[in-house]
Design brief:
single chain, about 250 residues, alpha/beta, three-stranded antiparallel sheet, 7 helices, 11 strands, globular, binds 2-amino-2-deoxy-6-O-phosphono-alpha-D-glucopyranose
């Protein structure tokens, strides 16, 4: 894998990268895996801007979001359905039938997970999976200890994640949903390309796990198993990372 430590905006870089990838396939379909979370906000702002400037067409884009809380209706401002509608879908020309988000209110959550995997398979897999990094190193909602080959599944959120996400629920941890549906680490690793983002000192210890061999207790290290994975980090997020690593190319720009 590669890590780019950026002196410019990680989120803008990511959005421009996505635009270039999409435009490079011309009018062909392009399948994106998408994150939510605060890191992705500025990335979506830049994607909206590129669309408004006529530089990015979403007509042929298919999207699969990473995760969704169990039990929150799409109208709940902290649901990832609400987030995606607000930050991207309502502002660009993506056909709504091309967008996919796990339904955390499904009667049969296991069946919902299986159907999600099937839908990804049906479109021929994900071309580029964009991701954020949890403070505890989780990717999507694959918490430390989750096997790397797991597929889309129901997860019980780690206490650290409930604490980290309480800021979105009036700092009231009791209001954070305890469960979520998430693509598996295996689902993420199946994508043809990975682009992850980490910003700020709160992500430094998660990024520093990349000094270790891949192990499920440190979910971000799964990226090292992928043939085409790139992590964009700002200097704060990269601050605990050794200057060089034998198995990771680190580029400063
Ligand atoms: C959340 C989401 C992840 C996201 C991560 C980082 O819990 N489930 O998909 O990548 O944690 O979020 P943030 O960017 O807000 O730090």
């Amino acid at each position: 894998m590669r890590i780019r430590v950026l002196h410019q905006s990680v989120e803008t870089y990511a959005a421009n990268y996505i635009q270039q990838k999409i435009n490079s396939v011309g009018a062909s379909r392009f399948v994106l895996g998408l994150p939510t979370g605060s890191t992705a906000l500025a990335m979506y702002a830049r994607l909206r801007e590129l669309h408004q400037q006529g530089q990015l067409d979403f007509q042929q884009i298919v999207t699969f979001n990473m995760d969704e809380y169990v039990g929150l209706p799409p109208t709940h401002p902290q649901s990832y359905h609400y987030y995606m509608e607000k930050e991207l879908f309502s502002a660009v020309n993506i056909p709504l039938q091309n967008t996919h988000i796990l339904n955390g209110q499904a009667d049969d959550l296991q069946a919902e997970c299986r159907a999600y995997e099937d839908a990804i398979t049906q479109v021929g897999g994900i071309d580029l999976f964009i991701g954020g990094v949890g403070r505890n190193g989780h990717i999507a909602f694959n918490e430390p200890g989750t096997p790397f080959d797991i597929r889309t599944h129901l997860v019980t959120l780690a206490p650290a994640t409930l604490k980290a996400n309480a800021r979105f629920f009036d700092n009231d941890i009791s209001r954070v949903p305890t469960h979520a549906l998430t693509v598996g680490t295996g689902t993420v690793l199946d994508a043809r390309e990975l682009l992850f983002m980490a910003t700020g000192a709160v992500k430094a210890s998660a990024v520093a796990t990349l000094a270790h061999a891949p192990n499920p207790d440190e979910p971000l290290t799964a990226l090292k198993l992928h043939p085409n994975a790139l992590l964009l980090a700002d200097e704060e997020a990269a601050s605990l990372l050794p200057a060089t690593l034998s198995d990771v190319e680190i580029i400063h720009e």
